[in-house]
Amino acid sequence: MIKIDQECCDLCGTCVSVCPVDCMELKEAMLVIDNSRCNSCQICVRMCPFKALELVD
Amino acid sequence: MRTEYDVVVVGGGPAGSTTARFAKTPANSVVLFEKDREIGVPVRCAEATSIPDLGRFVKINPCWIASTVTRARLISPSGQAVLLNLPANGAVLHRRIFDHDLAQIAADQGVEVYTKADVYKIERSDRYWRVYVRHLAHDYCLKAKIVIAADGVESRIARFAGIRTQTVLKDIESCAQAMLANIDVTAGQIDFYFSSKWAPGGYVWVFPKGDHCANVGLGVNGAHFDGRSAIDLLNAFISEKFPDAARLTCVAGGVPVAKSLKQIAVDGLLIVGDAARQVNPVTGGGILAAITAGNIAGTVAAGAIDQADWSLKTLKEYQIEWDKGVGKDYSRFYNIKEWMTELSDPELDEIAELLHDIPPTEMNILTVFKVALRNKPTLLFEAIKLFAKMI
């Protein structure tokens, strides 16, 4: 699953725009991930400008 | 807040405010929702644009202009600099003031504006949309004839309407930018650094905002990621080039360098700006595209409400106008971007070397394209057609 460092996240939405399974959303000034749909492809991890995302077990 | 509107605009950037302004007539109702607490903040933008092009849509307020720009300096990986004069006067804007004023112009026409208003769902119901918005801890459900999706790169509203907006890696740049103070900048000049060392598959920009202040940022192409994220690369660049700088802001952002979405109009919904991937794919500039699209979308929406037909049949006029105008130019730019992002550092240096021998009086964007594309006649043809349009 993907772990979000909410302190690093700048709410820019880059991850949301690249997620191939559409499991990320900016909701009321928070990034939220539906990990049940996430396929751990890590595209969001590499595209995050501020390194706020990480793949964890 | 009413329970019914003719047009609901989601997003208070240049695309949303411009669409709202042109959609509003004395006979209809238009509301604009911005999720942040203030229009114009945060500024996720390098802020450069062309003054004459902007002036076609809005009366320029001198307060928007942080600095004017007449030439660009392109710096190759080995440090060779190519100076070129820009075809039209450019400006680095204060987006904070600019965005605020565009919203105010819309409000002056009678557009209602709400900030801290998060549209979290839209649903089709007969010929209308049900728009769910959360504003200051209250949930509202409104009925709307037309929804304008101007919600930026995350493009969530279009997805509610069933349009796939996900961007592939080669078509997006992961960006970080700082506004630096206490630095030396050259007045009237914007700098671009091309190098895989600083910005793989993208570039670094240094856009002056004042005598000792500039937006310094970079974009990394998603397909060229080498383990260093945008913020790592930006920190490295600033440490080497501007070690004494103070950082007044630091923001992240994603810039689509894609073809605009195939479908930007459906029954009762139009997509504008970054949400529709309406960005110049070579430069990553999106201000003019947003305003151009907003002008068309707003006018079409006003006409649709007036005729009481907001089905795709009427709204597709927006798609047609966009596709035959700026959209067509940007498709050409897209082909050039596809070629540019694949250039290696030695190839970039070779182009800079060839440009070195060209007299400054003949140095313009067309010359750069001519030299750079000497082995790509098909692309050169497209570049010339684009250049003819720019002047």
Show the helix and strand layout.
The complex is a heterodimer of chains A (57) and B (391).
Chain A (H helix, E strand, L loop, with lengths): L1 E3 L9 H5 L5 E3 L4 E3 L9 H5 L5 E3 L2
Antiparallel strand pairs in A: 1-4, 2-3
Chain B lengths: L3 E7 L3 H10 L6 E4 L14 E3 H5 L9 E11 L5 E13 L1 H14 L3 E3 L2 E9 L2 E8 L2 E12 L6 H5 L11 E10 L7 E5 L10 E7 L2 E9 L8 H12 L4 E11 L8 E2 L2 E3 L15 H21 L4 H13 L1 H15 L4 H12 L8 H8 L4 H14 L1
Parallel strand pairs in B: 1-2, 1-9, 2-6, 4-11, 9-16
Antiparallel strand pairs in B: 3-5, 4-5, 7-8, 8-9, 10-13, 10-14, 11-12, 12-13, 15-16
Helix pairs in contact in B: 1-3, 1-6, 6-7, 8-11, 10-11
What's the short story on this structure?
Chain A is an alpha+beta fold. Chain A is 18% helix and 21% strand.
Number of strands of chain B: 16
Number of helices of chain B: 11
Q: pLDDT below 50 for ≥5 consecutive residues: which ranges of chain A?
A: none
Instruction: Supply the number of helical segments of chain A.
Output: 2
Query: Largest interface by residue count?
Result: A-B, 22 and 32 residues
CATH topology of the largest domain in chain B: FAD/NAD(P)-binding domain
Count of discrete structural domains of chain B: 3
Which fold name is given in CATH as the topology of chain A? Answer: Alpha-Beta Plaits
Q: What would the average pLDDT of chain A be, to the nearest integer?
A: 95
